Amino acid sequence: MCRSSSAHLLSSLANSGVARCALAGVLGLLMMMSVCPDARADRPLAVDHSTEIYFPPIGQQTIGDCTCWSSCFYYNTYVQARDHGLDASINDPDVICSPWFIFSLISQTWWGAECTEHAASRLSAVGCSSISLRPMSGSYAQWPTEAAWVGALKNRMGDFHKIRADNTAGLEIVKQHIADGGCAVTRADFLSNYGEYGSTGSGTGISNHVMYRREGWHYLRHSICICGYDDERQYIDDRDGLPYTGAFLVANSEGQNWGWYNSTGTGTRGFIWIAYNMFLEGECGWYDYELDVSPCFDNAPYPEIYFHDDRPDYVPVLYAAAGISHYARNQLTFSGGIGPTSAPEFTGPNAIEATDYGEIAMDVRRRIVVDLTDGADLIQPGVSKNVFISLTVEPEATQSASIMSVDFFFDPDGDGEYTVIPGEMTPPVTVAPGTTGYVSALVTGLGPGDLNCDGAVNGFDIDPFLLVLGGTPPYDDYYAQYPWCDHMQADVNGDGVINGFDIDAFVTLLSH
Questions:
Q1: Last residue of one domain, picked from the residues 444, 468, 499
Q2: Which domain holds residue 465?
Q3: pTM attached to this predicted model
């Protein structure tokens, strides 16, 4: 990271509210450079991920869901397509992440532009399904299907990062992240010259198709995806007539006839170049008015840019699905964990969270899914653990919630074959306002030699072991009675085949 005195001086100027440098000499030079040479030495001077097959084509939102277009359609699609070597540029609905999946979980009626941080952070908790699983048709308020929830899990992100972007050090972190193969999400309170940019890519506060300042009347609050940067992108600031360099390339959700082109200067429009100085001057990256404090309304009093650690090739090995009936999503918090409900050893992410508004009804037939994979290592071979889901109803709710069904899905070897363990319950489980309800089950880690899958290797495993080893009568008939069990537990020595070499290993296990 750049630690030069010039960077500290520039950062101090930005943080103290000296938005632009109108001074001559060295200060003007610093603003032109944006970052010190040492910081730029380890990365390219320009990157544009929108030219790659992993980046989706420019799209056009139809409701106030720009938060989810920036976070899901562009950002998460790019990350997941890049992970799996998929072509997102052809707009394949099996590849593109659906903005409406997350929007159903965070929307405050039909809008959600104030929820940028919340939308992006949801990718860590629940991921995002493809458009094929959550189509962008019908009503945005239609609850996602269980298949969409499960499909979203493989697209979960890792840890969520909020980068303060009104200083050169923060901007350098973001540019390095982009140089390393990432994209990012941010927000802006645009003024009317944003509309000028949309028409021609030029206008007041715009030079060489770079927006470097806001001008005019309030236009809109908006969320956008940063997909590239160019340290040498030049523009002239009309406030002092001096040349400056440095801008982020942003993918917008206003359609392919809006704004300007990406770094190629050809193809479809739909992009906007935003000067680094817009962040340094506090004119981009936040909303310059006060918002209520809640999980959905987020507004740090300074510019921020968001991205995550990746979860490459992620496969969930433990999750729960629950059928819940209630009239208002925003009055519920749904999660789960491992261990006693009173003192969990692991607590999972919130699949849904209480917010100020958004009375979208739960559909009991479209079950909600919570991923418990991050705690699955607690369930060791031969060890039984209590797993549970939890549902909290906010005190101000006027109706109780009902839990109608719960199943836990466990795939300890990650082969895609899940054992289904029903929750221990007699439906409905009623959860009154101001309380939390739980449904639990006992999940046992399977180990080699545990042929009846009871969590222990003992004499009760001998008959099924001999059955599998001999192959007659067909062991499939035996295991049809126990669908949660896997005959490959007879591969005691772990060489991938079941034969006589497993006998000695099995006897050794029994002797212990």
A1: 444
A2: 459-511
A3: 0.82
